[in-house]
Structures are given as structure tokens and as C-alpha cells.
Design a protein that fits this description.
Number of strands of chain B: 12
Number of helices of chain A: 20
CATH architecture of the largest domain in chain A: 3-Layer(aba) Sandwich
Helix content of chain B: 25-40%
CATH class of the largest domain in chain A: Alpha Beta
Radius of gyration of chain A: 40 Å
Structural class of chain A: alpha+beta
CATH architecture of one domain in chain B: Beta Barrel
Number of strands of chain A: 20
Number of helices of chain B: 3
Helix content of chain A: 25-40%
Structural class of chain B: alpha+beta
Shape of chain B: globular
Shape of chain A: elongated
Largest sheet of chain B: 6 strands, antiparallel, barrel
Distance between the termini of chain B: 64 Å
Strand content of chain A: 15-25%
Order of helices and strands of chain B: HHHEEEEEEEEEEEE
CATH superfamily of one domain in chain B: Rod shape-determining protein MreC, domain 2
Largest sheet of chain A: 5 strands, mixed
Oligomer: heterodimer
Strand order of the largest sheet of chain B: 1-2-5-4-3-12
């Protein structure tokens, strides 16, 4: 084919070349505009990609990732010998991973919709309602699998499912809670490994001794706002928290920061519908909280509570290590089973505890008139002020007149001439009326304050009573607008009247007296090596202390606490010191008796101090310290001696 | 046209694949099973051939060797007879105690011995094919044992063969207990590469259970799961570690090395299966 050059036709007006030439300036303008727009576009793109890349990445992360936080198990509590008091037990639950059911939900939705359409019903449910129906149907289907394996008839809680689906579909939906180990074993074996149904394990508090030291150990409650460690990654992500627990009472509350576990968690990518995509992008296991060794002695606590339960009356018992101030026993009766608080306390159980008056920790929160046990304070005040000497005597005629009022002695007995040790031994009121009036209320109140009886002890437990009362003229004037009478002093001298103290304070008083110091700072934490209390010495002459100790020893031998020498409580070779008391309190039903016993063992180099109170529940009933409170102390002393003293044969 | 001719095989393959994808699930399942059943005689025949080969190799042994083997076998039989007597006595005692305590007795099993046709070990699954199937009453889920304890469970049953998932398979999970302890722990096959001793993962082990290489603990079936009878040896645990959450320990169980070279197993077929 021959090449034929193209020739322009000069006779044809407006050739192509001419036409382009004619538009040149406008084309350049167009090109310029186009270039500018492209440049703006490219620049914008570059700015977004390079300049704002970090922000976009963060937004993408926040939108597409979710964090699931799992609580760490709480630490354990042990007694001073390392025996478990509070631990954790596994709690098995059957859960369903909703994110693995997307296809099933869709398929069921189509099936349900088709069924509705086939029925010809014009009143069709909305798409949302159909979706809910489909979800319930699918979940119920999986629950049927569990029912078949376990032989149950469980039904899905549609409302709970819907709530979970709306609010936390990234978390597994709990179908059955707290299943038995046998059920767990069946599911483990019969559910396929890759099933959306899984056995989920969480921890819950476990109290191996049930009611033992219930008020002291305390309990936990569930906590929806789990504290999360700042170092846990994904702080800026939407976070779903599994339910944790927080200490509510007792040591569980007081030591919550130490016991609380470190939360773990995982970060998952989610699809636009909020379903989790496996596997997790990042995972951190929870870490158990710190363990705490308490000062409690399981054997002594058990002995005290058994004896209190035998009485069947409300009361409290406290035992302290005299040297260190460590609390060996802190018991309150009536009590409750700590295991009834896990996984949660039912309303019926709470009401039952309330009806029995068991919430109160009587050892630290119960305020009682100390009765004759307060005579020890009166004696110390008299000895310190010089109004009482170790060999002081008074003739007891069975009554004592103060102004125009006659005060009777204990049992109206005419005891004749009586010394300080004998007055303590027989709990003679006349002796203490006489010398209490001579010493004066100011000196007695000052002695009580010197021993810290007007202040909380500072024990590491929450809610210790703060309104203890050491009455004096200033208090009476300010509170009642009345002046102080000698009869008030007589009353206080024998521990009656407006005095109000806790059993823990009385235990501290006795421990201080036994150690020759003014104060005892009790603690529930065991320290190894032991740390001795170093409080100010009480400044009493040895002869004065010896007279008081002699009286207290006589109480347990031949006095009001002689029940401790019966075969049940007697420990051969162990010298005991104690003081009984019986206080009265007027109530709407009548006057109730409160039985007291305070004491320590051994008399020489004391090791353990005890305070016990037992509340009478019937007006007029003779609930005396020697009969009701001393046996509880005796049980504690015996349990202590069994562990700490060599058996008699060894001698 | 020539180009189309060249692409025809690929086109056909594509059409077949597409057709397979759109086929109903039931048809696919029947096709798969039929394929397996057609293929099964080949495996079974190969297994018989191996047996024959073994028979002829045994025929080459001398009379003395055979006499010695027979003597060893007679001694073994005598010891087994003794054990059987002990076993019968213990069974009677267990039955008496169960009656006394009104405990429910475990379901009975019928022992069905089966030759191993093929072993299929990989990092993904650990399986055996045995030469008995539904024609011998085997059921899916039946426990499988050998002289050294638990082998696994029946995963698939065909007419003349059955597939057994070994306890070393990651898809097998069971509730085991430590010998002398009644608390169930989770036992799951691990990812076991070939040519290495099989291991399994242990989870939810109570904190007061201890195991060291010097004093390993025996792991047996719990009988609580409803699949395996209690007391079957599963493996040995030589170390346990406390998990960070402080609730449990985790560890690994070393399985019987004979699992990898089994030639004969026994399938425990439930006599009275649960409804």
C-alpha cells in the first residue's frame, strides 16, 4: 500500500490546527486549573497520609479494637501458723461465645422470617424483633446441648441475653453459673474443643472454716467498676470489664488494697457489628493479689467460738499476745457463714442475719458497761494516787452509805475486814466504793484515759466503735447539764453507770497491766520476727502490781472465777490471773446482765491476755461473769496451754 | 480456538469445583462417605497383607525360638490368670461397697478387640484407623484402650472401619484425676509433631497437687465425664506450674510411647448406652 501524504485543504475553512491554535490561551488556563486541583488533591492526600497518619491510626484503633478486662484473684489470708483462713475456689460457668454464632443468627433469622411469611400473617414482627427471636432461638439451641449433657431443663433468659447482646457482646454470655465439679467434668469431656460453648473458670472467695472468725475475716461483694492498672495496655480503648470483687467488711475490707489482684485483659479486633475477631491482638494474664498472714490462731479461735456457741448467748471474746499485741482471737457471737456471701448474699439470708443481730462485731463495735472488771482501773488509780496501798483494808458490812443513799455490796455479804487482793478476789463493792470515793472521779477517769480506754484501739479493722465513754463531772455537766454526785463516783468505781467500753479495749487494758505498760496497740497482722510493744511503763511500784496480781490469781483459784480450776479448764502448773464482772443495763424489756471476764496467763511472764463478754437475753436471769464468761476464757487458756506448754509428763 | 482448547481442562475443573460448591450438603456427605467406603477395602486389604507378611516372617523362626516364646507366653498367661482372680475379687468387693453405700454403678462395656489398619499422625491430628466398624457394633464416642491404658475415642464409624482420635490429638479433651485424688482436671491433647514423644496439656490442676521428675504423678480417667470409665491410665505428670492467677496449676502429661506404634486396640462398646 503506497503512502499518500495528507494534504490540508486550503479551501476548507477552520482546519484542526487552526482551531487548536485559536483556543490555546483558554486551554492553558484549564490545564493550570486542573494541575492546581490535582496538586491540592495530592497535597491533601499527602497531608492525610503523612501528617495525620498517627491520628488516623489511633482513630482506627479506637473504632476497631476493644479491651476486655478480667479481675485478678484476691490474695489468701492465713493464720499465724500458715493455715488457710480465706482462699479462692474456682467457680465454673458455662458460657457461649456470641461472636462465633453470627452465621447461625443470620440463618435462624431467615428461617424465622420465612416461617412467618408462610403463615400468611400480615402482622409480621419488625426486623429487630425477628433478630431477637432468632438470637434467643439459637442460644436456646446451644443451651439444649448443655441440658442434654447435664440432664437439666434450663431456659434462656431472653432479657438478659438481649441486654448482654446490646451492651457487651464481646464478652461470653453466661448460660449457667456455679456448676458442680461433676457437671464441669461432663461438659469438659462431651463438649467439642472448638465449640462456641465453653466452660469458663473464674475465682470466688472460699472460707474453709465457714463461720469461724466471720466478723474478723469479713466478706467481699461484687464490684462492677473494676480498678485497672495504668500499665495495662489499651487504656484509650472502649473497655469491657468482667465483674470483680471488693472487700466490704473485716480484714477483707481493711486489707483490700493488698489482697486485690492485678487485673489482666485482652485486646480484640472487632468487626463493624461489634463481634470479636479471634485471636486476641494482645493478652495479659491476671495476677493474684498479695497473701496476708494474720495474727489469728486458728486453734484458739476455734476453742473460743465453740465455748461461746455452747453458751448460746450473744457475746464476744478477744485474746491478745501480751508481748506483741497481736490479736490471737477475735470472736463475736452470733455470727454468720461467710460462704453464704459467695457468689452473692441472698435477701433471705441477709434478713435472717439481721433478725439474729449477727451483723454487729461485738468485739470491736459492742459498747458495754465493764462491771466489776473496771475495779482493776479503780485499784490502779488508787494505788497511783496513794489512796490505796497494797495493804489497805476496809471493813465490809454488806452495804456502804454514800450521802443519803445506801450502796449494797456484792451479794449483800458481810465480809468483815478485807484487803485489796481479797477485794479483787471476792469482787467486794464496799472496798471500791470506799477507796473510789477517796481517789476521786478525776483520778479514776484519768487512769482510764491513761490506758487508752477513751479512744479506739486503732486495730486494723474497719468500723471500730468510737463512742466509748469514761464519764466525769465535765462530761455530765456538758451532756446532761447536771452536777456530779459522790454516788456517781461510787457507781463508776465498780464499773457501773455510764461507762461504755468494748471487749477489745478491755483486752488491751489487761495486756497492758500484764506487761506493766499503759497502752497496747493491737494488730491483726502477724510479724515475723515478732515486734514487741514498746509503750510507756505504767509507773506502778512492784508491790502495788503484785497486790493486784495476787488478787487476780485468787479470783481464778478461790474467787469468782474458780470455775477455771474445774477439771474441764484446769491446766496443771499453769497460774491464771483474772477478774470477773457482771454489769447491768436497763432495757425496755427489763434489766439485762452482761457477764465479763478479763485475765491473763501465766501470772509470771504473762503471754496471753483475754477479755470475754456474754450478753444475757432474759431480764432477771443471773448471767454472771464467773459462770458464763470465765469458761470461754478457760477454753482459750487451755487451747493456748495445749500448744505452748510442755505436757505434764515432760516434767 | 486453539487458545480455548488449551484452557478447556481448567474450565472443566472450574465448573466441577463450582458444581461441588453449590451441591446440597447431604449429597456432599453421601459422596464423601461413599468415597471413604470405596477406599476402605484398599486399606483393609493392605492391612491383611501386612498380617500375612508378619505371619510369614514368623514362620522363619526356629523351633527353639517358638518354644521359648510359647514358654514366655505361658508364664504371662499364668500371671494374668492370677490378676484376673484378683480383679474378680476386687470387682465383687466394689459391687458390695456400692450396694452398701447405694452408689450408682458405672455402665458396663463390651470389649471389642480391633487391629490397627493405619496410623495417621501429624501436627494437626493424631488418629488411627481400626479394622472394625458399625458391623461390629462400634459407636461414635466409644472409649478405646490398650494394654498401657487409654488410647482415645472413636471419632468416625464406617461399615468395616472406624477412626479413633488418640488422646494426643488436640481435639480430644477429657476430665482426668490424679491417682488417689478425686478432683477433676482438664486434659487436652497437645500439638505433637511427629517423631517426638506425645504430650498433653493439663489445666485446672488444684494448687495442692505436686509433681516432680523425681516423684511423678499418675493421671487416670475420672469417670465423671460420662465417656470414659474411671481409672484408665492416661499419662504421667512430671512437672506442674502455678498459673499467675493463683487459682490452679498447669502442666504437661507425658503419654505412653506405645501410642505411636499400636497394632491392636480394644474398643469399649457400651452395653447399655445412656438414652
Amino acid at each position: 500500500m503506497a503512502y499518500a501524504p495528507r494534504t490540508s485543504a486550503p479551501d476548507r475553512p477552520g482546519s484542526m490546527v487552526e482551531s487548536h491554535r485559536g483556543y490555546d490561551p483558554r486551554l492553558w488556563l484549564f490545564y493550570g486549573l486542573l494541575a492546581l486541583m490535582l496538586a491540592v488533591l495530592a497535597g491533601g492526600l499527602a497531608y492525610q497520609q503523612l501528617g495525620r497518619a498517627e491520628q488516623h491510626r489511633e482513630r482506627e484503633t479506637v473504632q476497631s479494637q476493644r479491651r476486655v478486662v478480667v479481675p485478678g484473684p484476691r490474695g489468701n489470708l492465713f493464720d499465724r501458723e500458715g493455715r488457710l483462713l480465706v482462699g479462692n475456689r474456682p467457680r465454673f460457668a458455662v458460657t457461649l461465645n456470641l461472636d462465633e454464632l453470627r452465621t447461625e443468627f443470620r440463618r435462624e433469622y431467615l428461617r424465622v422470617r420465612r416461617n412467618y411469611r408462610e403463615t400468611g400473617d400480615k402482622d409480621l414482627p419488625t426486623a429487630g424483633q425477628l433478630e431477637r427471636l432468632a438470637r434467643v432461638s439459637v442460644v436456646q439451641g446451644h443451651l439444649q446441648t448443655v441440658n442434654r449433657i447435664l440432664g437439666g431443663r434450663e431456659r434462656v433468659d431472653a432479657q438478659a441475653l438481649e441486654r448482654h447482646y446490646r451492651q457487651a457482646r464481646i464478652l461470653p454470655f453466661v448460660l449457667l453459673e456455679d456448676i458442680a465439679p461433676e457437671a464441669y467434668a461432663r461438659l469438659l469431656e462431651q463438649l467439642p474443643v472448638n465449640s462456641p460453648l465453653q466452660v469458663y473458670t473464674a475465682s470466688t472467695r472460699f472460707y474453709p472454716h465457714g463461720r469461724l472468725a466471720a466478723h474478723t475475716l469479713g466478706y467481699t461483694a461484687s464490684d462492677d467498676d473494676l480498678a485497672v492498672d495504668e500499665n495495662l495496655p489499651g487504656a484509650d480503648l472502649t473497655t469491657f470489664k468482667m465483674r470483680g470483687s471488693v472487700g466490704r467488711q473485716g480484714l477483707e475490707a481493711a486489707l483490700d488494697a493488698r489482697l486485690q489482684g492485678q487485673a489482666g485483659g485482652a485486646i480484640y479486633r472487632v468487626d463493624p457489628a461489634g463481634y470479636r475477631l479471634q485471636p486476641a491482638l494482645e493478652k495479659r494474664r491476671p495476677v493474684q493479689g498479695g497473701d496476708v498472714v494474720t495474727s489469728l490462731d486458728l486453734d484458739l479461735q476455734r476453742a473460743a467460738e465453740a465455748q461461746m456457741a455452747e453458751n448460746g448467748l450473744a457475746g464476744a471474746a478477744v485474746a491478745l499476745d501480751v508481748t506483741t499485741g497481736e490479736v490471737l482471737v477475735l470472736a463475736s457471737h452470733p455470727d454468720y457463714d461467710l460462704n453464704s456471701f459467695t457468689p452473692r448474699l441472698t435477701e433471705a439470708t441477709a434478713a435472717e442475719i439481721n433478725a439474729r443481730g449477727a451483723w454487729l462485731n461485738r468485739a470491736t463495735q459492742g459498747l458495754y458497761p465493764p462491771g466489776s472488771t473496771f475495779k482493776l482501773v479503780t485499784a490502779l488509780a488508787g494505788l497511783r494516787s496513794g489512796h490505796i496501798l497494797p495493804d489497805s483494808e476496809v471493813e465490809c458490812t454488806g452495804s456502804y452509805q454514800v450521802g443519803g443513799r445506801v450502796f449494797v455490796c456484792n451479794n449483800h455479804r458481810d465480809r468483815g475486814v478485807i484487803t485489796l487482793p481479797q477485794a479483787i478476789e471476792k469482787s467486794c463493792n464496799t472496798f471500791f466504793y470506799h477507796f473510789g470515793l477517796q481517789t476521786g472521779i478525776e483520778a479514776i477517769a484519768a487512769e482510764a484515759r491513761l490506758h487508752g480506754l477513751d479512744q479506739p484501739t486503732g486495730l486494723d479493722l474497719p468500723h471500730e466503735a468510737r463512742h466509748m465513754l469514761i464519764p466525769d463531772p465535765a462530761w455530765k455537766q456538758s451532756r446532761r447539764g447536771d452536777r456530779w454526785f459522790p454516788g456517781d463516783t461510787a457507781n463508776v468505781s465498780i464499773g457501773q453507770g455510764d461507762l461504755a467500753l468494748t471487749p477489745l479495749q478491755m483486752a488491751c487494758l489487761v495486756a497492758s497491766l500484764a506487761r506493766g505498760e499503759t497502752l497496747t496497740r493491737p494488730t491483726l497482722l502477724h510479724r515475723d520476727p515478732p515486734v514487741a510493744q514498746a509503750q510507756p511503763p505504767d509507773g506502778l511500784p512492784p508491790a502495788a502490781r503484785a497486790a493486784v496480781f495476787a488478787g487476780m490469781e485468787a479470783v481464778t483459784n478461790t474467787g469468782t472465777g474458780r470455775i477455771l480450776q474445774t477439771p474441764r479448764f484446769r491446766v496443771p502448773g499453769l497460774r491464771l490471773a483474772g477478774k470477773t464482772g457482771t454489769a447491768q443495763k436497763a432495757t425496755a424489756q427489763g434489766t439485762l446482765n452482761f457477764a465479763w471476764f478479763v485475765g491473763f496467763v501465766p501470772v509470771v511472764n504473762p503471754r496471753i491476755a483475754v477479755a470475754v463478754i456474754v450478753e444475757g437475753d432474759t431480764p432477771g436471769e443471773d448471767v454472771a461473769g464467773g459462770r458464763y464468761a470465765a469458761p470461754v476464757a478457760g477454753a482459750i487458756f487451755k487451747a493456748w496451754a495445749d500448744k505452748n506448754l510442755p505436757p505434764p509428763e515432760a516434767d | 480456538m486453539p487458545r480455548f482448547d488449551q484452557a478447556r481442562p481448567f474450565l472443566t475443573l472450574g465448573i466441577v469445583l463450582l458444581a461441588w460448591l453449590v451441591l446440597p450438603a447431604a449429597v456432599k456427605r453421601v459422596a464423601r462417605l461413599s468415597f471413604y467406603e470405596f477406599q476402605a477395602p484398599t486399606d483393609v486389604a493392605a492391612s491383611y497383607a501386612r498380617d500375612l507378611q508378619e505371619f510369614w516372617s514368623q514362620k522363619t523362626r526356629t523351633k527353639n525360638e517358638v518354644i521359648e516364646a510359647a514358654r514366655d507366653l505361658a508364664r504371662l498367661n499364668a500371671s494374668y490368670e492370677l490378676r484376673l482372680q484378683d480383679d474378680a475379687r476386687l470387682r465383687a468387693e466394689i459391687a458390695r461397697l456400692e450396694e452398701l453405700l447405694r452408689l450408682p454403678s458405672y455402665g458396663e462395656f463390651r470389649a471389642e478387640p480391633a487391629r490397627v489398619v493405619r496410623r495417621d499422625f501429624s501436627a494437626w491430628w493424631q488418629r488411627l484407623v481400626v479394622r472394625k466398624g458399625s458391623n461390629h457394633g462400634l459407636r461414635v464416642g466409644s472409649p478405646v484402650i490398650h494394654g498401657g491404658g487409654l488410647v482415645g475415642r472413636v471419632a468416625e464409624v464406617h461399615a468395616h472401619t472406624a477412626v479413633v482420635e488418640l488422646i494426643s490429638d488436640p481435639a480430644v479433651r477429657l476430665a482426668a484425676v490424679f491417682d488417689g485424688d478425686d478432683r477433676p482436671v482438664s486434659f487436652q491433647g497437645g500439638s505433637n509433631p511427629p517423631l517426638r514423644p506425645a504430650e498433653a496439656l493439663l489445666e485446672y490442676v488444684p494448687l495442692d497437687v505436686f509433681a516432680t521428675p523425681a516423684s511423678p504423678r499418675r493421671l487416670v480417667t475420672s469417670g465423671l465425664g460420662g465417656v470414659y470409665p474411671p481409672g484408665l491410665y492416661v499419662g504421667e505428670v512430671r512437672s506442674l506450674e502455678a498459673s499467675t492467677d493463683g487459682l490452679f496449676k498447669t502442666g504437661r502429661a507425658v503419654l505412653d510411647p506405645r501410642l505411636g506404634r499400636l497394632t491392636e486396640v480394644t474398643v469399649l462398646v457400651p452395653v447399655d448406652p445412656a438414652p
